[in-house]
Design brief:
The structure is a single chain. This protein folds into two domains: 72 residues, Translation initiation factor 3 (IF-3), N-terminal domain (Ubiquitin-like (UB roll)); 83 residues, 2-Layer Sandwich (Translation Initiation Factor IF3). A hairpin with a 6-residue loop joins strand 4 and strand 5. The strands form two sheets. The chain has a five-stranded mixed β-sheet, with helices on one face. The chain is of the alpha+beta class. The mean pLDDT is 85. The two termini are 40 Å apart. The longest helix is centred in the middle third of the chain and has 17 residues. The radius of gyration is 30 Å and the shape is rod-shaped.
Length: 172
């Protein structure tokens, strides 16, 4: 089948067509009226599958069934796709080690599912003095999840926010 949308009976305006019957046998070049009558006798549709060829190729088939199967194939292919989402884990410089462990555990679950994770650490007021502490914390997080992830964007300051993005590593 071609990528173009097939044309059904009423829209075929050429005098001769190359006909393929319902059991995929090539009949050959026949007048369009003969193709239409064969399709009516079989209780099916005459569908133009290759309009750009000389003469156009038409097939006797059940067009409704063909459309249904195409929709079914599209649904099946979409089921197998996984859309990668960017999940955010927010941290603070004064976070308790236990709370940090819980957040890293949640990030591991996101990575196992195939999503990217962005770690964001917001500094307020006098916390800006201890940005190096934030970088150390980010390095520790990387060490704990290095078996699952690779760094996509290393830790970087943007205003008062330190962000780092990690992506699941499919090789490990």
């Amino acid at each position: 089948m071609s990528k173009q949308k097939p044309r059904i009976n009423e829209r075929i305006r050429v005098k001769e067509i190359r006909l393929i019957d319902e059991s995929n046998n090539q009949i050959g070049v026949v007048p369009t009226q003969e193709g239409l009558s064969r399709a009516r006798d079989a209780g099916l549709d005459l569908v133009e599958v290759a309009p750009n060829s000389k003469p156009p190729v038409c097939k006797v088939m059940d067009f409704g069934k063909w459309l249904y199967e195409q929709k079914k194939k599209n649904k099946q292919s979409q089921k197998k796709q996984h859309v990668v989402h960017l999940k955010e884990v927010r941290l603070r410089p004064k976070i308790d080690p236990h709370d940090l462990g819980i957040k890293v555990k949640k990030a591991r679950k996101f990575l196992e599912k195939g999503d990217k994770v962005q770690f964001s650490m917001l500094f307020r007021g006098r916390e800006m003095i201890h940005v190096d502490h934030g970088h150390e914390m980010m390095k520790d997080i990387l060490e704990t999840i290095e078996d699952l992830a690779k760094v996509e964007r290393p830790p970087k300051m943007a205003g008062r926010r330190l962000t780092m993005v990690v992506a699941p590593d499919g090789h490990k």
